[in-house]
Amino acid sequence: MFRNDLVSQKGLYRTGLAATAIFCTILTIVGVQTFFSVAAGQGNTSSQIFNGFTPIRLILNLSYLVSLVVYLVWLTQKTTNLSRFSEVIQVSAPFLLLATLAHPVSSDSYLYLHYGWMVLQGVNPYLEVANSLPSAMSPYFSWTDQTSTYGPLAMGLFMLSAVGILAHPLVAVYLLKLFCLLFHGINGFLIWRLLGQSANRSKLTLAYLVNPAIVSAFIADVHVDVFLCSSILLMLGCLHYYRYTWAVLAAFAGFLTKTLPVIWIPLLLSFLLVRRRWKELGVAIGSILLVGLFLSQSILPDRSAWSGLLNPSTAELTARSFHHILVIGLEKFVGITPEQRSAIVQGLKLAGYSIFFGAYFVCLGNLFFSHRYTEDELTRDIGWTALILLVFATPWLMPWYSSILFPIALLLTVKAPRFTVAALIFGLSPTLIYGTGSGQNLLGMATAFLSVVPASLAILFGEQLFPYSGLAAPTRTPEPVNVMAGKSTL
């Protein structure tokens, strides 16, 4: 039986690697072709390839689906435990190398580098819109009339990568990809250490490092969320070791990377309040205020600069969400005016926000009124609030947004199985149809349906699916290991 398992694993590994190679090769060919066609003034060829149904998009999706199926089958199997993190890296290295070589299709990497170049040229990207300063990256992105929506910590990495523009724009792109690869590896190491003596330690770490959706979003396509994951894992690690002040500051660091962690800061501060950790509470609040004051006197000097971090340009846009399904449905099948459609969509937005705030207040209620609210439960509620916000209350939902939930889910496989499965499904299902998913057509509706409906069902019934996920604790373990509570030694 053991030999058969090994043969099966080798077959899965080779199949997954072959599918990943095809996927990354197509990304590279299309991406490089697009780069030089735009440079020659011939237009963006990737938009023609990834909008609607095309043969290349079909091959790309099939290769991704194969890698996804292999990944899911692997999750259901017993695997040989690896005793060292270096062995985990050796297994995942071919996948990560292929993703690093792949050229990003999304234009976000060019936008990141452009903002970094603005800083290098002495222009504040939080006060000046992107097209206020031309750069070698300007022809390659479309969000030209907005200020930066990414925090100062992310901006520092953009600036370091933008130095490569002096050599060639592609040098800067791949320098940024190397930063993404480095932080992805660091995130895997943090998961490895936080899992401690968990029976599935090596499998859960690999489940993060070679996850097709994460590898595609973080490394192949280059998104800032990989840096956000680092702050999340640091936050969870600080909770794990009872470093509560540092946990709050790690969440604030996440906010200074990308906005989402701001929703967790009230939970963390309330946790300190309930625990009567007055000193940690005071130091955390004081530190946030001091950093905020410093930023207000430097790169974020006014309200518009701070509000720009909320990405106001997407306020009236929809993609891959229930709102997007409704917009397309009303436009295609219901004969009403644009004003009436807008009013209906605004009603859905209000309902989505109501669901989110309702869930948030339930979490706060548990925190304040539970006799013993633990770090595990706080970690669980941090995950649930983000999941519900993204699924039900985010009109503009890109497939990589869900990636931040994977680290939380992998650390809670024993304590919160329903969240684990819901986060896994939500992380994988939006990528089933590769592309932005913002089209106002039936393909766009199908993409939006796959993005949010499976996740919604998993939120309701995910715990029943957990035994089949391959992440449940093995039966040979006498009792589940609490990986997020109790002091450990490093």
Account of the 3D structure:
- The protein has a domain at 316-490.
- Helix content is 65%, strand content 0%.
- The chain contains 20 helices and no strands.
- Helix 1 packs antiparallel against helix 3.
- The longest helix is centred in the first third of the chain and has 38 residues, at 2-39.
- Residues 1-7 and 474-490 have low confidence and may be disordered.
How do the strands and helices of this protein lay out in sequence?
Blueprint: H1 2-39, H2 45-50, H3 55-75, H4 85-101, H5 108-120, H6 152-162, H7 169-195, H8 201-209, H9 212-220, H10 225-240, H11 244-255, H12 265-274, H13 278-296, H14 303-307, H15 322-333, H16 338-369, H17 375-393, H18 405-410, H19 417-428, H20 442-465
Helix pairs in contact: 1-3, 1-4, 4-7, 4-8, 4-9, 5-6, 6-7, 7-8, 7-10, 10-11, 11-12, 11-13, 12-16, 15-16, 15-20, 16-17, 17-19, 19-20
Q: Mind describing the biggest β-sheet? A: none
Uncertain residue segments: 1-7, 474-490
- The shape is globular
Radius of gyration: 22 Å
The H-and-E topology, N to C, reads as: HHHHHHHHHHHHHHHHHHHH
> Could you tell me the strand content as a percent range?
under 5%
In DSSP terms (H or I, runs of 4 or more residues), the helix count works out at: 20
Question: Which descriptors apply to this entry?
Answer:
disordered C terminus; mainly alpha; single chain; 20 helices; 490 residues
In short:
With 490 residues, the chain is mainly alpha-helical. The chain has helices at residues 2-39, 45-50, 55-75, 85-101, 108-120, 152-162, 169-195, 201-209, 212-220, 225-240, 244-255, 265-274, 278-296, 303-307, 322-333, 338-369, 375-393, 405-410, 417-428, 442-465. It contains 20 helices and no strands.
